[in-house]
Amino acid sequence: MKFIAFDVRDDEKPYFQAWAKQNKIEVTLDSGVLDERTLKKTTGYDAVLALQTRSYPEGMFEFFKKQGIKVLSIRNVGVDNLDLTAAKASQIPVTNVPAYSPNAIAEFSVTQLLQLLRQTTIFRQKIAAHDFRWAPFIGEELRSKTVGVIGTGRIGKAAIKIYQGFGARVIAYDLYPDPKLKSQGIYVPTLAALLQQADVITLHLPATAQDCYLLDEKAFSQMKQGVYIINTARGILIESKALLAALKNHRVAGAALDTYENENSIFNHDLRAQPFDDPILAELLVQPNVLITPHIAFYTKTAVENMVLIALNSAKAVCQQGKSDNLVTK
Protein backbone atom coordinates (compact mmCIF):
# COMPACT_ATOMS: atom_id res chain seq x y z
CA MET A 1 0.00 0.00 0.00
CA LYS A 2 1.32 3.43 -0.97
CA PHE A 3 0.07 6.91 -0.05
CA ILE A 4 1.07 10.34 -1.32
CA ALA A 5 0.41 13.56 0.60
CA PHE A 6 0.44 17.05 -0.90
CA ASP A 7 1.05 20.49 0.58
CA VAL A 8 2.94 18.94 3.48
CA ARG A 9 4.50 21.46 5.85
CA ASP A 10 7.57 20.86 7.99
CA ASP A 11 5.47 20.80 11.15
CA GLU A 12 3.42 17.91 9.74
CA LYS A 13 6.34 15.72 8.66
CA PRO A 14 7.13 14.09 12.04
CA TYR A 15 3.54 12.85 12.37
CA PHE A 16 3.51 11.48 8.82
CA GLN A 17 6.84 9.74 9.32
CA ALA A 18 5.96 8.21 12.68
CA TRP A 19 2.64 6.89 11.35
CA ALA A 20 4.26 5.43 8.22
CA LYS A 21 6.84 3.60 10.32
CA GLN A 22 4.27 2.28 12.78
CA ASN A 23 1.84 1.14 10.07
CA LYS A 24 4.52 -0.09 7.64
CA ILE A 25 2.96 1.91 4.80
CA GLU A 26 4.97 3.97 2.34
CA VAL A 27 3.94 7.63 2.48
CA THR A 28 5.47 10.06 -0.01
CA LEU A 29 5.50 13.66 1.18
CA ASP A 30 5.21 16.49 -1.36
CA SER A 31 5.35 20.15 -0.35
CA GLY A 32 3.52 21.27 -3.50
CA VAL A 33 -0.21 21.73 -3.97
CA LEU A 34 -2.38 19.30 -5.88
CA ASP A 35 -3.08 21.00 -9.19
CA GLU A 36 -3.03 20.36 -12.94
CA ARG A 37 0.78 20.20 -12.97
CA THR A 38 1.19 17.82 -10.03
CA LEU A 39 -1.82 15.57 -10.60
CA LYS A 40 0.27 13.05 -12.54
CA LYS A 41 2.41 12.49 -9.43
CA THR A 42 -0.47 10.49 -7.94
CA THR A 43 0.03 7.66 -10.43
CA GLY A 44 0.86 4.40 -8.72
CA TYR A 45 -0.55 5.29 -5.32
CA ASP A 46 -3.53 3.85 -3.44
CA ALA A 47 -4.50 7.01 -1.56
CA VAL A 48 -4.03 10.73 -1.98
CA LEU A 49 -3.96 13.12 0.98
CA ALA A 50 -4.33 16.86 0.54
CA LEU A 51 -4.92 20.10 2.38
CA GLN A 52 -5.69 23.27 0.45
CA THR A 53 -8.27 26.03 0.27
CA ARG A 54 -7.74 26.66 -3.44
CA SER A 55 -9.62 24.70 -6.10
CA TYR A 56 -8.60 21.16 -6.96
CA PRO A 57 -7.79 20.37 -10.61
CA GLU A 58 -10.63 19.78 -13.03
CA GLY A 59 -11.04 16.12 -13.93
CA MET A 60 -9.14 15.00 -10.85
CA PHE A 61 -11.54 12.26 -9.78
CA GLU A 62 -11.81 10.83 -13.27
CA PHE A 63 -8.00 10.71 -13.35
CA PHE A 64 -7.96 8.96 -9.96
CA LYS A 65 -10.39 6.33 -11.23
CA LYS A 66 -8.23 5.59 -14.27
CA GLN A 67 -5.15 5.27 -12.05
CA GLY A 68 -6.85 2.95 -9.55
CA ILE A 69 -6.61 5.38 -6.66
CA LYS A 70 -8.97 4.26 -3.93
CA VAL A 71 -9.55 7.41 -1.85
CA LEU A 72 -8.92 11.13 -1.47
CA SER A 73 -8.39 11.97 2.20
CA ILE A 74 -8.29 15.66 3.04
CA ARG A 75 -6.69 16.91 6.24
CA ASN A 76 -9.35 19.52 7.00
CA VAL A 77 -13.10 19.86 7.45
CA GLY A 78 -14.33 21.94 4.53
CA VAL A 79 -15.22 20.34 1.22
CA ASP A 80 -16.54 23.47 -0.51
CA ASN A 81 -13.60 23.42 -2.96
CA LEU A 82 -14.22 19.80 -3.99
CA ASP A 83 -16.48 18.60 -6.80
CA LEU A 84 -18.31 15.93 -4.81
CA THR A 85 -20.63 15.21 -7.74
CA ALA A 86 -17.60 14.25 -9.80
CA ALA A 87 -16.26 12.18 -6.91
CA LYS A 88 -19.50 10.18 -6.78
CA ALA A 89 -19.59 9.76 -10.53
CA SER A 90 -16.03 8.39 -10.48
CA GLN A 91 -16.75 6.32 -7.36
CA ILE A 92 -13.85 7.83 -5.46
CA PRO A 93 -14.54 8.02 -1.71
CA VAL A 94 -13.62 11.29 -0.02
CA THR A 95 -12.83 11.54 3.68
CA ASN A 96 -12.26 14.61 5.79
CA VAL A 97 -11.27 15.41 9.37
CA PRO A 98 -14.56 16.56 10.89
CA ALA A 99 -13.04 17.58 14.24
CA TYR A 100 -9.31 18.03 14.66
CA SER A 101 -9.50 20.50 17.55
CA PRO A 102 -12.66 22.58 17.89
CA ASN A 103 -11.16 24.25 20.95
CA ALA A 104 -8.20 25.58 18.96
CA ILE A 105 -10.47 27.66 16.74
CA ALA A 106 -12.92 28.57 19.49
CA GLU A 107 -10.13 29.77 21.80
CA PHE A 108 -8.59 31.83 19.03
CA SER A 109 -11.87 33.57 18.26
CA VAL A 110 -12.21 34.64 21.88
CA THR A 111 -8.55 35.69 22.05
CA GLN A 112 -9.04 38.01 19.08
CA LEU A 113 -12.22 39.50 20.49
CA LEU A 114 -10.53 40.28 23.79
CA GLN A 115 -7.80 42.16 21.94
CA LEU A 116 -10.41 44.21 20.10
CA LEU A 117 -12.29 45.01 23.30
CA ARG A 118 -9.11 46.20 25.02
CA GLN A 119 -7.73 47.97 21.91
CA THR A 120 -4.34 46.29 22.23
CA THR A 121 -3.28 47.21 18.68
CA ILE A 122 -3.53 50.91 19.49
CA PHE A 123 -1.61 50.48 22.75
CA ARG A 124 1.16 48.54 21.02
CA GLN A 125 1.47 51.37 18.52
CA LYS A 126 1.50 53.99 21.27
CA ILE A 127 4.11 52.16 23.33
CA ALA A 128 6.32 51.69 20.27
CA ALA A 129 6.27 55.48 19.98
CA HIS A 130 7.01 55.81 23.76
CA ASP A 131 3.54 57.21 24.43
CA PHE A 132 2.40 55.49 27.63
CA ARG A 133 -0.83 57.41 28.23
CA TRP A 134 -4.15 55.59 28.56
CA ALA A 135 -6.92 57.96 27.46
CA PRO A 136 -9.07 58.00 25.47
CA PHE A 137 -8.75 54.31 24.57
CA ILE A 138 -10.84 52.80 27.34
CA GLY A 139 -11.66 49.10 27.06
CA GLU A 140 -14.84 47.08 27.31
CA GLU A 141 -15.63 43.88 29.22
CA LEU A 142 -16.75 40.68 27.54
CA ARG A 143 -19.09 39.75 30.38
CA SER A 144 -21.23 42.79 29.59
CA LYS A 145 -21.77 41.71 25.98
CA THR A 146 -24.38 39.69 24.13
CA VAL A 147 -22.45 37.32 21.89
CA GLY A 148 -24.23 36.02 18.80
CA VAL A 149 -22.85 32.69 17.57
CA ILE A 150 -23.78 31.77 14.00
CA GLY A 151 -23.23 28.06 13.48
CA THR A 152 -23.39 25.68 16.43
CA GLY A 153 -21.45 22.64 15.30
CA ARG A 154 -18.43 21.38 17.20
CA ILE A 155 -16.52 24.67 17.00
CA GLY A 156 -19.55 26.83 17.69
CA LYS A 157 -20.43 24.78 20.77
CA ALA A 158 -16.85 25.03 22.06
CA ALA A 159 -16.98 28.80 21.57
CA ILE A 160 -20.30 29.05 23.40
CA LYS A 161 -18.83 27.34 26.48
CA ILE A 162 -15.91 29.75 26.55
CA TYR A 163 -18.06 32.85 26.13
CA GLN A 164 -20.43 31.64 28.81
CA GLY A 165 -17.42 31.10 31.06
CA PHE A 166 -16.63 34.80 30.76
CA GLY A 167 -20.17 35.57 31.89
CA ALA A 168 -21.40 36.86 28.54
CA ARG A 169 -24.97 36.37 27.41
CA VAL A 170 -24.91 34.03 24.42
CA ILE A 171 -27.50 33.75 21.68
CA ALA A 172 -27.20 31.52 18.64
CA TYR A 173 -28.60 30.84 15.21
CA ASP A 174 -28.36 27.65 13.18
CA LEU A 175 -30.59 26.12 10.52
CA TYR A 176 -30.13 22.81 12.35
CA PRO A 177 -30.28 23.55 16.09
CA ASP A 178 -28.45 21.31 18.53
CA PRO A 179 -31.02 19.64 20.86
CA LYS A 180 -28.97 20.22 24.03
CA LEU A 181 -28.37 23.87 23.21
CA LYS A 182 -32.02 24.29 22.25
CA SER A 183 -33.03 23.15 25.72
CA GLN A 184 -30.94 26.01 27.13
CA GLY A 185 -33.05 28.50 25.20
CA ILE A 186 -30.14 30.28 23.51
CA TYR A 187 -31.40 30.02 19.93
CA VAL A 188 -33.11 32.98 18.28
CA PRO A 189 -35.70 32.26 15.57
CA THR A 190 -34.03 34.11 12.69
CA LEU A 191 -30.66 35.40 11.58
CA ALA A 192 -32.11 38.92 11.59
CA ALA A 193 -32.99 38.54 15.27
CA LEU A 194 -29.39 37.65 16.09
CA LEU A 195 -28.02 40.54 14.03
CA GLN A 196 -30.29 42.99 15.83
CA GLN A 197 -29.48 41.79 19.36
CA ALA A 198 -25.78 40.88 19.33
CA ASP A 199 -22.92 43.11 20.50
CA VAL A 200 -20.52 40.52 19.09
CA ILE A 201 -21.13 38.31 16.05
CA THR A 202 -18.86 35.30 15.63
CA LEU A 203 -19.03 32.97 12.63
CA HIS A 204 -18.61 29.21 13.00
CA LEU A 205 -20.35 27.72 9.97
CA PRO A 206 -19.14 26.08 6.76
CA ALA A 207 -19.16 27.86 3.43
CA THR A 208 -22.00 26.95 1.09
CA ALA A 209 -23.52 28.64 -1.93
CA GLN A 210 -26.43 29.72 0.27
CA ASP A 211 -24.15 31.32 2.86
CA CYS A 212 -21.95 33.27 0.45
CA TYR A 213 -21.88 36.88 1.72
CA LEU A 214 -24.03 35.99 4.69
CA LEU A 215 -22.87 39.29 6.15
CA ASP A 216 -23.44 41.80 3.37
CA GLU A 217 -24.50 45.43 3.24
CA LYS A 218 -28.06 44.58 4.24
CA ALA A 219 -26.91 42.41 7.14
CA PHE A 220 -24.59 45.13 8.47
CA SER A 221 -27.42 47.64 8.32
CA GLN A 222 -29.45 45.41 10.67
CA MET A 223 -26.72 45.22 13.31
CA LYS A 224 -26.38 47.29 16.46
CA GLN A 225 -24.13 50.31 16.31
CA GLY A 226 -20.67 49.38 17.59
CA VAL A 227 -20.87 45.64 16.94
CA TYR A 228 -17.76 43.45 16.79
CA ILE A 229 -17.30 40.87 14.01
CA ILE A 230 -15.22 37.70 14.39
CA ASN A 231 -14.62 35.34 11.46
CA THR A 232 -12.57 32.18 11.94
CA ALA A 233 -14.69 30.18 9.49
CA ARG A 234 -14.60 31.01 5.76
CA GLY A 235 -13.81 34.27 4.00
CA ILE A 236 -16.76 34.23 1.62
CA LEU A 237 -19.16 34.49 4.56
CA ILE A 238 -18.39 38.21 4.70
CA GLU A 239 -18.60 40.73 1.87
CA SER A 240 -15.31 42.52 2.54
CA LYS A 241 -16.30 45.73 0.77
CA ALA A 242 -19.44 45.99 2.90
CA LEU A 243 -17.45 45.27 6.07
CA LEU A 244 -14.97 48.03 5.25
CA ALA A 245 -17.83 50.47 4.73
CA ALA A 246 -19.40 49.41 8.04
CA LEU A 247 -16.08 49.98 9.81
CA LYS A 248 -15.77 53.45 8.31
CA ASN A 249 -19.29 54.50 9.35
CA HIS A 250 -18.70 52.99 12.82
CA ARG A 251 -21.53 50.49 12.55
CA VAL A 252 -18.79 47.95 13.25
CA ALA A 253 -16.47 48.86 16.14
CA GLY A 254 -13.91 46.23 15.27
CA ALA A 255 -13.32 43.05 13.30
CA ALA A 256 -11.05 40.03 13.65
CA LEU A 257 -10.59 38.18 10.37
CA ASP A 258 -8.65 34.92 10.33
CA THR A 259 -9.97 34.23 6.86
CA TYR A 260 -10.61 36.48 3.88
CA GLU A 261 -12.62 35.99 0.71
CA ASN A 262 -9.58 36.36 -1.60
CA GLU A 263 -7.00 34.74 0.64
CA ASN A 264 -5.71 31.88 -1.53
CA SER A 265 -2.90 33.77 -3.23
CA ILE A 266 -2.02 35.75 -0.09
CA PHE A 267 -2.32 33.79 3.13
CA ASN A 268 0.56 31.44 3.94
CA HIS A 269 2.72 33.07 1.26
CA ASP A 270 5.84 35.18 1.74
CA LEU A 271 5.00 38.44 -0.03
CA ARG A 272 7.63 40.63 1.61
CA ALA A 273 9.41 41.28 -1.67
CA GLN A 274 6.30 41.91 -3.71
CA PRO A 275 3.06 43.88 -3.43
CA PHE A 276 -0.32 42.23 -3.67
CA ASP A 277 -3.12 43.65 -5.74
CA ASP A 278 -5.97 43.75 -3.24
CA PRO A 279 -6.92 47.30 -2.26
CA ILE A 280 -9.66 46.21 0.16
CA LEU A 281 -7.33 43.97 2.16
CA ALA A 282 -4.65 46.66 2.04
CA GLU A 283 -7.07 49.11 3.61
CA LEU A 284 -8.26 46.60 6.21
CA LEU A 285 -4.66 45.91 7.23
CA VAL A 286 -4.03 49.50 8.32
CA GLN A 287 -7.17 49.85 10.44
CA PRO A 288 -6.27 49.91 14.17
CA ASN A 289 -9.57 48.20 15.00
CA VAL A 290 -9.08 45.29 12.58
CA LEU A 291 -7.05 42.17 13.34
CA ILE A 292 -5.97 40.13 10.31
CA THR A 293 -4.38 36.71 10.75
CA PRO A 294 -3.51 34.30 7.89
CA HIS A 295 -5.96 31.46 8.60
CA ILE A 296 -4.13 30.24 11.71
CA ALA A 297 -7.01 29.69 14.16
CA PHE A 298 -6.62 25.93 13.74
CA TYR A 299 -2.83 26.04 13.95
CA THR A 300 -1.90 24.30 17.20
CA LYS A 301 0.24 21.24 17.82
CA THR A 302 -2.80 19.23 18.88
CA ALA A 303 -4.78 20.16 15.79
CA VAL A 304 -1.96 19.52 13.33
CA GLU A 305 -1.26 16.07 14.78
CA ASN A 306 -4.95 15.17 14.68
CA MET A 307 -5.36 16.40 11.11
CA VAL A 308 -2.49 14.24 9.88
CA LEU A 309 -3.30 11.08 11.85
CA ILE A 310 -7.06 11.11 11.26
CA ALA A 311 -6.56 11.65 7.52
CA LEU A 312 -4.04 8.81 7.33
CA ASN A 313 -6.18 6.42 9.36
CA SER A 314 -9.23 7.26 7.25
CA ALA A 315 -7.32 6.55 4.04
CA LYS A 316 -6.04 3.27 5.45
CA ALA A 317 -9.55 2.21 6.51
CA VAL A 318 -10.97 2.86 3.03
CA CYS A 319 -8.10 1.02 1.33
CA GLN A 320 -8.36 -1.99 3.62
CA GLN A 321 -12.06 -2.15 4.48
CA GLY A 322 -13.78 0.01 1.88
CA LYS A 323 -15.22 2.30 4.55
CA SER A 324 -14.35 4.96 7.13
CA ASP A 325 -16.15 6.83 9.88
CA ASN A 326 -15.10 10.06 8.17
CA LEU A 327 -16.52 9.49 4.71
CA VAL A 328 -17.92 12.62 3.08
CA THR A 329 -19.09 10.72 0.02
CA LYS A 330 -18.67 7.28 -1.50
Brief description of this entry?
Residues 7-328 form the D-isomer specific 2-hydroxyacid dehydrogenase catalytic domain. This is D-lactate dehydrogenase. The protein is an alpha/beta fold.
Q: What do the pLDDT scores average to?
A: 95
List the uncertain runs: none
The number of domains is 2
What is the gyration radius calculated from CA atoms? 21 Å
Question: What proportion of the residues form beta strands (DSSP E)?
Answer: 5-15%
CATH domain class name of the largest domain = Alpha Beta
CATH topology of the largest domain: Rossmann fold
If strands are numbered along the chain, what order do they take across the biggest sheet? Answer: 2-1-3-4-5-12
Number of strands: 12
Helix/strand structural class: alpha/beta
Q: Assign the CATH architecture of the largest domain.
A: 3-Layer(aba) Sandwich
Profile the largest sheet: 6 strands, mixed
Number of helical runs?
Answer: 12
Tell me the helix content: 25-40%
Q: Looking at this structure, what is the CATH superfamily of the largest domain?
A: NAD(P)-binding Rossmann-like Domain
Measure the end-to-end span.
20 Å
Which of globular, elongated, flat, extended, rod-shaped describes the shape? Answer: globular
Q: Order of SSEs, N→C? A: EHEEHEHEHHEHEHHEHEHEHEHE
